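Ligand: PXG. Inputs:
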Amino acid sequence: MGLKIWLNDKLVEESEAKVSVFDHGLLYGDGVFEGIRVYGGRVFELKAHMDRLYVSAKAIRLEIPQDMETLSDNVCKTVAANNIKDGYIRLIVTRGIGSLGLNPLTCKQGQIIIIADKIQLYPPELYENGLRVISANTMRNHPLAISPQIKSLNYLNNIIAKLEALDRNMLEAIMYNHMGYVAEATGDNVFVIRGGKIYTPPISAGSLEGITRDVVIRLARKSHYEVLEQNLTRYDLYAANEIFLTGTAAEVIGVVEVDGRKIGTGRPGTITRDLWQKFEAYARS
Ligand code: PXG
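Predicted complex:
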């Protein structure tokens, strides 16, 4: 039996969960989405994900055809219907069906899709040994073109950078903004540790305001680490004692190599491990 998928106003069988070829989500990447975790049957940080979804939609002038409370309920119903205890939700709102041509006003109503499934995780060795990454040549989207804060259905900027990593047999790439400052990884936020302090780029550097990022900053400050949102250069990565990435899929993962240069001891560092443990404990609490 396949999954039960939420499509607009009801659950349907996976085999019936189909969208039109005239959906502008497909034709133009016109839409927004969220990737959300489920831990122990509970949807993690649902309110924060909802807030981000609605603000992304607002930024592209897409009206979500359900209010936040109804949509949140529908997310929970989809998780329950598929009996997901530990998993992953993909919540998508497309511009909907319209005519050929960019004009979003031809789309009568946004389309809502909710998928709740098991999650594909990085292998455990990667958390123990750390990730090797490269600096992408592909610059992060310029904020005057499309704000990197919008979690839109158009991920080509990140996908092209991801391909640069894959070409070099790496899983992730660090993306820089138009001024040369670190923005983020292709699907994760970046943290750097030096001299016992934790640094992360400000959102204005071209990062998505990651929900994992926010949780980790809160947990770190609660544990009396100093966390500074500051522009970081490639030099700051090379000079770091520790680097880690945060994201819904990856959670907290150490980075041990950037552009072939060893970071710190070449193993995930003590602060990275501490925050990783604290995140796990919080997520499953
Ligand atoms: N930056 C970008 C560009 C992202 O897409 C993050 C940072 C981290 O944000 P959160 O809120 O997740 O801490 C993301 C999130 C996937 C996948 O399938 C990607 C994300 C989330 C879930 C799944 O690759 N990106």
